[in-house]
Design brief:
Chain lengths: 431, 265
């Protein structure tokens, strides 16, 4: 399957290369400007677990390069405002013994085939929805290892290989996305420890789960649809997603420790606008577990209902605050519980999370202090993210921070991460 | 329709300029302030410009910002929409800041972060906070509604009106009052001094260079100084064009996510 995946990737690259070359040949492009940064990241681990390394969970050098070509001349692409975007990260990862790798984050063509339509095709980062670090209708892939390990926020979002078509008729805006399945990146025991049900507790390198991704075939493509519009200053959106759970929450074969990504449909809606001197947002989603719609199969995750409310505002003097309440309910919970085996670990029916964010800028906005806190009263766990960033110049930035997940139990969302507490430092030179 | 009225106005203005100067009726302070507001923030129905900001802090350290600004007037002297596309420094390149300016209500503000493809809504209750870390505040960039202050004409020289302004609501403003020196010839505010309760000057904004662009007097260089903490920001405008045919639909989420190529290059 890896071969197929490689092939798919090469195919995408090939198409884009041909497009860009032909456009260049036809017309020439404006000389590109390259930007990016060089960065060193290091994170010291504050707790003991059984991951690959003791003492730290991040030590890497990173070079990011990005550019955009505006296609020019007398050709279809130039006439339709085409931009070719590229962004790639080369990393040298000391955590894995100096392993070097290249992460292509963007390689896409963006153009407008008509006055009221845009297309973006290729590898791209996709985001929608109204939450702050909480996602209901944003079913695009995320990298929670980067999130907990102390990399920049940018790396929470993984890119997708996708074609995004946006159309703008009179009254409403529509986004339709077709994409290849890409799972979330979760702790796997090598860099970050987590709760592994096969190991019966928090596991590190001993974890030997097998995560089965859906085979690469047309019927496994994912579809995401958003219809949105403004009502004055308020933004309303409806969402639909058909694809797979991005996290491996269902069991394929317990004996062989195989987990997989069950098929889901998600129906959702959101509203965002001015509220009480700040910005208020509300979002909900109904996730249908298509392979277990009655909820009676203990191996497959059930359908769920999710909702959240948020509020953020400026307090003046470069202070800003935000808070959110998030709610999640497993549907058909009776059926689920009735079919569990005595030794099974199980999820609770309800989960509540509240978050708080406080941000303050100092020294002519060159210093950013930020605290973000997740707290779940139902799971009795939480996660505090603190950071202090200083732009010494337009080029140099130093950021220090801490990731402090905690929990009374080992099985809960943040509780299972509690042995990954760290403090980190990032030094970045932008150009 | 609006365009026709505009043209008619322009023709009238031209004809009037051709007439021998007649002793003008003394303008009321409201008329002066209103006219200065239009000259500063409403030249043309639409406008585009490249802005270069040089921010110097109290210790002499220099930072640069470069962005392109697009403006659309929904109504003359009324609501406006702004689109700010950042080019430098590198860490904010391609970031977009969009404002729907309302009179008598909080503005709507959006920030687009390209690395995350994230359209963030920003609470806009604080119009007196620094714009992108400079010594200009949001209100310097998009205008302070003339109805926010009471105005008194305190002095008149051969070429300047001097208007004293006191905020009607002192909540959320860092000054007690401010004076504006307005050029009598073209109604361009040339200097603004902000005072604290003790009457000390705490901040100044000065127009350093004015150019006629398509018939509109335009400040192409200005400086804001923080006299309390030190430091200043110099704004230089270039590539300025008015009545460029920008349409209102540019100021939508669509163009936050996909920058309008023809306008931002």
């Amino acid at each position: 399957m890896d071969t197929i995946r490689q092939g798919w990737r090469l195919g995408v690259l090939g198409v884009l290369a041909v497009l860009s070359l032909s456009a260049t040949a036809c017309a020439g492009m404006s000389w590109p400007q390259w930007h990016g940064f060089l960065e060193t990241d290091a994170a010291l681990k504050l707790s003991d677990d059984n991951t690959k390394r003791d003492g730290f969970n991040l030590l890497e050098q990173r070079l990011q390069l990005k550019t955009s070509y505006f296609v020019e001349g007398e050709n279809y692409f130039a006439d339709h405002g085409t931009i070719l975007n590229f962004k790639g990260d080369a990393t040298l990862d000391e955590y894995f013994g100096g392993k070097s790798s290249f992460d292509l984050r963007e390689l896409n063509l963006s153009f407008s085939p008509s006055m009221s339509a845009d297309v973006k095709a290729g590898r791209q980062v996709l985001t929608w929805g109204t939450g702050d670090y909480l996602f209901i209708n944003d079913m695009f892939p995320k990298d929670y290892v980067s999130f907990f390990a102390g990399r920049d926020d940018e790396y929470l979002k993984k890119p997708s290989d996708a074609i995004k078509v946006s159309v703008y008729p009179q009254q409403i805006n529509l986004d339709l996305i077709v994409m290849r399945f890409e799972p979330n990146t979760h702790a796997a025991g090598d860099r970050l420890s987590f709760f592994d049900s096969f190991q019966g507790g928090i596991a590190g390198i001993e974890s030997d789960r097998d995560l089965l991704e859906p085979p690469l075939q047309l019927s496994n493509n994912e579809y995401a649809l958003r219809a949105y519009r403004n009502f004055g200053s308020n933004e309303a959106a409806l969402y639909y997603f058909r694809g797979f759970d991005k996290s491996p929450r269902s069991y394929k074969d317990e004996l062989n420790r195989q987990l997989y990504y069950e098929r889901v449909d998600v129906y959702g809606a959101s509203l965002r606008g001015p509220f009480a001197g700040g910005i208020g947002n509300a979002e909900m989603g109904y996730t249908v577990s298509r392979e277990d719609s009655s909820g009676s199969n203990r191996l497959i995750a059930n359908s769920m209902l999710k909702g959240m409310l948020g509020y953020s505002r400026d307090l003046g003097n470069d202070w800003s605050i935000g808070c959110q309440y998030y709610y999640e309910q497993i549907l058909d919970y009776g059926n689920y519980r009735d079919n569990l085996l005595p030794q099974d670990y199980f999820w609770d029916e309800y989960r509540h999370v509240v978050t708080q964010r406080v941000t303050k800028l100092f020294k002519q906005q060159t210093v950013t202090a930020s605290l973000f806190n997740f707290y779940s009263p139902s799971d009795r766990d939480g996660y505090l993210r603190a950071s202090l960033g200083y732009n010494l110049t337009d080029q140099w930035n130093v950021t220090v921070g801490a990731n402090l997940p905690w929990g009374e139990d080992e099985i809960t969302e943040f509780g299972q991460m509690k042995k990954n507490k760290n403090v980190y430092v990032r030094v970045r030179y932008s150009f | 329709m609006k365009r026709e009225i505009k043209t008619t106005c322009a023709v009238l203005a031209f004809c009037m300029a051709m007439l021998p100067a007649a002793p003008a009726r003394a303008m009321t302070v409201e008329e002066i302030v209103e006219k200065a507001n239009l000259v500063s923030y409403y030249a043309g129905d639409t406008g585009t410009a490249d802005v270069s900001m040089v921010i110097t802090d109290s210790q002499g350290r220099v930072r640069n910002r470069e962005f392109r600004i697009l403006r659309y007037d929904v109504s003359e002297g009324g609501e406006q929409k702004f689109y700010v596309y950042f080019k430098k420094p590198a860490d904010v390149a391609k970031m977009v800041f969009m404002v729907w300016k309302h009179l008598g209500a909080d503005d709507d503000r959006w920030l687009y972060l390209p690395a995350l493809d994230l359209v963030r809504r920003i609470a806009a209750s604080d119009k007196r906070s620094s714009f992108v870390g400079s010594h200009f505040v949001y209100e310097d960039v998009s205008g302070r509604g003339t109805e926010a202050d009471t105005h008194t004409l305190v002095d008149e020289t051969d070429d300047r009106y001097v208007v004293h302004n006191v905020p009607k609501d002192s909540q959320g403003v860092e000054f007690a009052s401010y004076n504006v020196w307005i050029d009598k010839a073209n109604f361009m505010p040339m200097k603004i001094e902000y005072y604290n309760e003790a009457g000390e000057v705490i901040r100044t904004v000065e127009t350093l260079e004015v150019q006629d662009i398509q018939g509109y007097p335009t400040a192409i260089k200005s400086v804001a100084k923080d006299l309390m903490r030190g430091g200043e920001t110099v704004n230089t405008f270039s590539n300025i064009h008015y009545d460029v045919g920008l349409t209102e639909d540019i100021f939508q989420e669509r163009y936050l996510r996909r920058a309008p190529v023809q306008w931002i290059r």
